[in-house]
Design goal:
40% of the residues lie in helices and 17% in strands. It is an alpha+beta fold. The longest helix has 11 residues. It has one domain: Alpha-Beta Plaits (2-Layer Sandwich). The chain has a four-stranded antiparallel β-sheet. The chain binds guanosine-5'-triphosphate and magnesium ion. Guanosine-5'-triphosphate binds next to helix 4 and strand 4.
């Protein structure tokens, strides 16, 4: 059965460009409830740990540098079928391939600097939520 929570980050490019409010509006309009949220910044070490599955990929260095380059917004979101529906809302990894109206089509600059993260499975949503939030930070 599909779970009802996912984890997201508004990435440094979108925070720097002033898109926090617009992206949160899209998230609210799509019917997600905010369970937890914070403005924070990842160290290089934490960015590397978060994207550990990509450690052997050629873009790993760039990814870590980018994700630790400025503040991010981290959040846990709730909705039926949260993981899949949120991936639909954000669009393809490369904004050139992202469907019209999706968050990445609207706000991402490139395949690397692509505005938002969305968990790719219920299991990873739980791992990623635990990476950023304690129980008392969830409502
Ligand atoms: P996330 O929601 O951030 O996990 O993105 P995704 O699931 O759509 O893509 P994936 O997990 O495959 O890649 C993780 C992140 O690595 C992407 O969102 C990009 O920020 C970055 N990335 C992926 N491919 C490339 C690439 O070819 N070049 C660069 N510079 N970054 C990449
Ligand atoms: Mg991913």
């Amino acid at each position: 059965m599909a779970g009802n929570r996912t984890f997201t980050m508004i990435k440094p490019d979108a925070v720097k460009a002033g898109h926090i409010g617009a992206i949160l509006a899209k998230i609210n309009e799509a019917g997600f409830r905010i369970v937890a949220m914070k403005l924070t910044k990842l160290s290089e070490e934490k960015a590397g740990a978060f994207y550990d599955v990509h450690r052997e990929r050629p873009f790993f260095g760039e990814l870590v540098e980018f994700m630790s380059s400025g503040p991010i917004v981290a959040a846990i979101l709730e909705k039926d079928n949260a993981v899949e529906d949120f991936r639909t809302l954000i669009g393809a990894t490369n904004p050139a391939d992202a469907a019209e109206g999706t968050i990445r089509a609207l706000y991402a600059k490139s395949v690397g600097e692509n505005a938002v993260h969305g968990s790719d499975s219920d299991e990873n949503a739980m791992i990623e939520s635990n990476f950023h939030f304690s129980e008392v930070e969830r409502f």
